[in-house]
Amino acid sequence: MKAAHWLLLLALIVGTVLIIRQHRNMPYHRIEGPIFGTIYHITYQGEEDLQAEIDEALHQVDQSLSPFNPTSIITKVNNNEPVDVDKMFTDVFGIARKVSEDTDGAFDITVAPLVNLWGFGFKQGTPPSDKSVDSLRQLIGFQKVELKGKKVEKSDPRVMLDCSAVAKGYGSDVVAALLERHGVTNYMVEIGGEIVVMGVSEKQQPWRIGVNRPTDDPTQSSTELETVLSLTDIAMATSGNYRNFYYKDGKKYAHTIDPSTGRPVQHSLLSATVLAPRCATADAYATAFMVMGLEKAKEVLERHSELKGYLIYSDGSDKYQVWYSPTLRDHIIGD
Fold it and tell me: What's the distance, CA 318 to chain centroid?
């Protein structure tokens, strides 16, 4: 019996070694495709070609949350058409409300009319008038919309919803969940800079993810990095004004609009990178931090042990300064 026991143990060890070796030899797939006006990039280890399923899952996100899709649920909500919302809409609405409440309204999915007003104004060569801004401010506020069952109720039918500041992160979460349902344990999902990583890369090391340097770049072609993070089993999102801004009469106007004032933010924070268990959450907080500015963003991060932040700000000269959560220190591997 003793010999049989050792033989069984040996067989189990050999079998485990063979399974691990087979798993390590499993190929890494790299796929990409268009979604949400950007391109997704996904790397994962597995035997199956999952691109068709991934495309379908992202199509469902688009069909639920894209305000640019004329048949989407959110478009019907904005047009005050009768519609039952789906689970994706409910998930994102819940995340948006939670982050809005936690940031005193700095994140607000009703702010889109003001964002559009400022964007269109500058494209026409002149900023919007105080009267037009103040008129739209009456329609802004996450408290003006509620979800009751499967129905969205607005305090004013002119209130519009736009989940663009969280949809890419949510899409990354959806793809990550799909991969895990297929037993994938090593992957990197990136949609428009919003990222989820799990396990290890093809080099059998944690994934290396760069944080862009906030160089004024309206062409969005610069890829100069401020730092590189070593990450696994986490989500990451970045928001910044360095690629979306306007100049008028020598003054720089940020793309980010403060819902409380209805006007572009004026502070030193240039870029906010947030790490969180879910990419949708990281996406929403990164956007909120760009509204709140450096000091208030740090206060939020200090309240939430599950969040990590990497904040790049101007010191008033031509140089950038960096602040990051103490728990992020071990992830920084340089540039």
Answer: 28
Q: Which residues pair with 251 in a beta bridge?
A: 248
* pTM score, whole prediction: 0.88
CB within 8 Å of 77: residues ≥ 6 apart:
83, 85, 152, 161
List Cβ neighbours of 294 (8 Å cut-off, separation of 6 or more): 267, 268, 269, 311, 313, 323
Structure tokens at 244: 């979306």
Nearest to 173 by CA among 236, 238, 231: 236
For residues 248 and 126, what is the distance between their CA atoms, to the nearest angstrom? Answer: 8
- What is the strand order of the sheet 332-334 is part of? 207-212, 225-231, 332-334
Residue 217: what are its φ and ψ, rounded to 5°? Answer: -155, 75
- Give residue-wise pLDDT tens across range 7-44: 666 656 655 444 445 455 799 999 999 999 999 999 99
